Structures are given as C-alpha cells and as structure tokens.
Amino acid sequence: MYASTKAAILQMARGLASEVGPQGVRVNTIAPGVIDTPLTRPLWDDVKARDAYSAHTVFGRWGSADEVASAVAFLASDAASYITGTNLVVDAGWTVIDDRFDPGR
Question: Which is catalytic among the residues 1, 2, 47, 77?
C-alpha cells in the first residue's frame, strides 16, 4: 500500500506539473528519509533501531526537520525557477545504498 500510494503521488505531481506549467506554476515533491520528528520518536527512543536507521544513511545519522524545510524552501525559491515535475530526495543517501534495510541489525 505504501509503495503504490507513493508512486501515485509522484505521478499525480508530474501530471499536474505538465498541466499547470504553462501558467507558470511549478509542482514538485519531497521524499524525506529518516527524519527526527514526533512521528519517528518511538524509533529514536529505541537505541538499537536508532543506530540501525543511522547506519543505513551515507552520513550515518538521522535528518532534522530543518534540513527538509531547507529543501522545501529551495524548491519554493527563484533558485528553482526551472524545476518542475520532479521529486527531490532528502534522505542522506538512503536510496543509493543497495543492500536491503534490516532494522534488526
């Protein structure tokens, strides 16, 4: 369910970008990795889980909400004026590590 919903959102954003682009509207999405938020607090509080998630990023740490907000601010800024219909992955390299994630390690 999660994967199909995520794919649907990406395709919806791409379609919308193509439809509203001629009016100067940009549509992009953000795909955050493991971010320290109230929702992920139970994982953070479990030292074994926290370390496993950290180890699966290139930087070896969790991200902060401020780091995701910076990506959003970039996409909303004039610096991204030629970017639309894309997904910005903010995951510290989570998706470039090719082994399967095992939170039990």
Answer: 2
Residue 90 phi/psi, 5° resolution? -120, 75
Q: Flag whether the pTM goes above 0.70.
A: yes
Beta bridge partners of residue 63, listed in sequence order: 35
Structure tokens of 105? 């390690």
The contacts of residue 14 (CB under 8 Å, 6+ apart) are 27, 85
Q: Look up 2 and say whether it is catalytic.
A: yes
Q: What is the largest CA-CA distance in the chain?
A: 50
Q: What is the identity of the amino acid at 35?
A: I
Kindly tell me if the per-residue pLDDT of 8 is higher than 70.
yes
Residue 38 has a pLDDT of: 95
Tokens 């992009």: give the residue: 28
